[in-house]
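Record format v2
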Amino acid sequence: MICQDQPAPSMVFDVVIVGAGPAGLMAAVWMAQLNIKTLVIEMKSCRTLTGHADGLESRTLEILDSFGLAGIIWKESNRTMEVCLWHHDSRGDLCRDSVSPNCNPGLSRFQEVTLGQGRIEERLLEFIDKSPNVQIKWKTSPQELLIHQDLVDLHREHAVELRLDTDSVVRTKYLIGCDGAHSWVRKQLGLSLEGKSAGNGDWGVLDCIPTTDFPDIRKRCIIKSQAGNVMIIPREDNLVRFYVQLPARCATRFRRDRRPSVLLSILGDALKPYYLVTSHVEWCTIYTVGQRLCRDFSVQDRVFLSGDAVHTHSPKAGQGMNVSMQDTYNLGWKLASVLRGVATSAILRTYQEERLPVAERLIRFDRRMCLGICSGSDHASADRENLADFRDETTGLEETLSEENTTASGLSVTYPPNLLVTATRIPPSQPDKHGVLYCSTPHLAKNIVIGRRLPDVLVLCQSNSQPWYLQERLPSTGQWHLLVFGGDISKASQLQRVEALARQLTRPNSILAPLCMPGATTTVGSVAVYLIHSASRFDVQLMNLPPIFRPYDDRRGREYRRVFADNEGFAPGCGMAYSLYGIAPEGCVVLLRPDQHCSLVVPLEDADTLERFFSLFVPV
Amino acid sequence: MICQDQPAPSMVFDVVIVGAGPAGLMAAVWMAQLNIKTLVIEMKSCRTLTGHADGLESRTLEILDSFGLAGIIWKESNRTMEVCLWHHDSRGDLCRDSVSPNCNPGLSRFQEVTLGQGRIEERLLEFIDKSPNVQIKWKTSPQELLIHQDLVDLHREHAVELRLDTDSVVRTKYLIGCDGAHSWVRKQLGLSLEGKSAGNGDWGVLDCIPTTDFPDIRKRCIIKSQAGNVMIIPREDNLVRFYVQLPARCATRFRRDRRPSVLLSILGDALKPYYLVTSHVEWCTIYTVGQRLCRDFSVQDRVFLSGDAVHTHSPKAGQGMNVSMQDTYNLGWKLASVLRGVATSAILRTYQEERLPVAERLIRFDRRMCLGICSGSDHASADRENLADFRDETTGLEETLSEENTTASGLSVTYPPNLLVTATRIPPSQPDKHGVLYCSTPHLAKNIVIGRRLPDVLVLCQSNSQPWYLQERLPSTGQWHLLVFGGDISKASQLQRVEALARQLTRPNSILAPLCMPGATTTVGSVAVYLIHSASRFDVQLMNLPPIFRPYDDRRGREYRRVFADNEGFAPGCGMAYSLYGIAPEGCVVLLRPDQHCSLVVPLEDADTLERFFSLFVPV
């Protein structure tokens, strides 16, 4: 079918992204990485320079690292090791109630850090700038959005039309609205945020370099004080972010003149008897706590919303930027897979299926966090009494903080069964009406959760014994990752099972064979096959293994980093993969999506199920 | 005194560096870092593109990291974990004799890696390019060198004159000849390399991407074969470097036509029954083994020689680039200190005193290495018999390789007592006629070797509990580092000793007080003071400690990273500093030079000795 009003080719894109904040730039990073013709438009004239978000969770750093972007961000950022709870007692003394870890050792090779949003955007922009396929237009706003209904089901067509304030018109296959809480895109779609936009009080935010004798100024602190509750977030270099609860009259005054002295005065009182002054205020603002959610993340699988456009909440848990970037990290490879013709457009509905529950959870979590911090001013236990009507939502503040470092840090986000995430095999191995394939055998890998990002382990490369975090070998290239846990392949019987699997994966006329071939024409949607065995690496010869585990390419030579041994050596923590993953000696096959989330776990013999899984969304 | 023939100001430099290889660029990195007006001239038109050196030892990576340069080099490089010895037996089978570690876990946070010299130069050039004070002139050769003898003792004068092939004349205070084995600078000074320039045979060098079934192609290998001995060095990406011993007729042929097929043919024979082919040869050359040394590293403390200009040897141990960069790393801060007026020119003689013994050791080591590798072709034990006349120099090849990973890796280079390295206190605490101060009390820190780089340990930052490798907090800024090991300062008596020391360091009219002041006008030559205590960090309040440990600066705020606790937490290996360094409970003071080498160890009470140490070279 031919679209009659085809605009000039230069104004036709595969993807248009509205908004160049963290969500929009993460989407653009995917498109740059996968060579998708993309336009980013942003109202502002340049990236964020000061202020705004500043918290990066470990999962976000893992994601950035999968594009090679974590190194410098990790180095520039501030690592927050501990969180301290303080309160002003009735005699006016400031007392430290507790010091607890603010990180999650063992869960990730990264941990929570803080760094100004602008410096993160800068790194993402540097990455995007290297791609000839992604262009950014600053100082550009959309004026009109039109979805051509006659084309909307034909995913090869540029069904979405956008008129810009420059009076030019662009056509695109997909549009992503990453334009913040007041999202223009969302409004055009007739959608709105549900929930209260206020109700938990006003908070001032202040970024400055303080001079103080408060002993925990370089730790994350929550201070309950009659003068106003305060949160302290140490930042990169010597910056500190303060959240200051504002009495109504101060909020009114501050809204009017935006003078940091208002915040500094309350802060000074809250920290007494310690002193705090500053000669350098970098940024300040005010916000009103509210948790709001849009329940529609996409419209007709053509227009998608992400980040603040679909969920707004307080900044207290440092979650916003993370969930926003993780939204588009979830979406990017799916769009690219459809655009490259390696997946049907049916996979696009998983965006809403997967990210809406995450947003709902975030909203609930933030409400608990706010109640814990905003409540009263004297002592946590008293607060909880006062909040009896919210009791179901008020676990203690300390538990909430601890949850932030584990489940809320993005590491345990678990996508529900859908077209791209199988369910546990209880009914026979068949898809249900939603396309969910019931096939996984989770007892084969007890600690790998279907739908969740694969936990990281250290393994030794068979070819050169170098220790690698397995995740470092699973970059975001749009490829799927098929991990064959072959067990002790120094035993002939086990090696034969692995060899039989390799034959199955490459048998003619299968869907998998071309996907697993090293010379696949496009990386996006292909399958990289890895072998992680538990034999001594000295009892295994790489060149005796099936060729699928040592792919060869005329230009770059052999890929030597697809076979790993779960052996001790050269780094503490090596040799624990099978036990950490809970993998039985008979081994198993684990399929990871391009975003490192687990799709299925099946026995080594079950290539048929793999085949069936892909057949549900790979065009024939 | 006024210099009469003062040339135009634009052609006057503090430092001129001849040669932009690794040695020259490391010197330029120092000058860029310390804002010294510098000219680098290089005959070639650009940096190295392919081939040449490729081995980086852990100490070199530590040095690069002290300028913030290790991260990307570490990431791009190939880590060589294991070294394998093979030989062709009498039946023509290729047998693996041994696999041993090729790294030194625990000795450094880095390990040996390989990366093409050009990519290392590229990173150094990027660093230098950011400085407005250092300029590089490519395609420029020196024509004439003149040391103005009437000015040579006046270190404020530009006593060195250099005429360039562009017919311009430059004047400089100091000249560094980093112009390689055929050094023009060395020849101008009438100096030569001593030693044999040949004698151990000819070797071909080949960088290529091989296709092979040889199982250890991604490990470092030494293969003894009748066809010719071979060394395999895996490199970045999929490159491999081969060293191939050439029979005389092949050497002649290869010298004539430089066709890699000559090398590939020998290589193919040496690896039989395994196959090896390549479709991509990146670089090849031939060299003749010889060990040569120039015993004069400087002339009149105005002209300095470094790198291949003073020591040439085989590339077999991957040492050359390391020792060359370490030469100028030793020299750079000394020149800058004299130029900034914070040290007398007397310190410049320590360059020769410190680096000549390193070069001598390198030459001896390389000779052992060559004998081990070049000898015979059948079997190591037989070779050693044949080399009876060299017996004193032929420890086994395996021991030599192991030595490379420990002592030869630069980590254990120990500078002898001199003006900047004290000797152990046996005579009274007085300098001898060479300016050596006998004052150190090494039993206070049993495992810190005077004259050697400080071993690295993990410590927790007092202000925020972040684990740091101590070395990461000792960057190359031209500053000295005074480490106060205060012991358990939660005990009043121990805290009082630390407070008394702080008073001594800041008493009026001392040499140390202005050096230790945070507002010192120049970083170069000043002293950063650190406290590493063994109390629980929860029993210590940063703000209760003497101000010298928490310096304040109006612009950047407080320096929170000068006090560390030797406590467990957040990373394996924390809490071991006192025991690893062998520091007694009473603590001690350790002074490190700007290059992290230890100058002295004295008791907490002995600020007088510190004062005396600096008084020997700090101008009053």
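Chain B has a mean pLDDT of 90.
The domain at 9-77+115-196+292-350 of chain B is CATH 3.50.50.60 (FAD/NAD(P)-binding domain).
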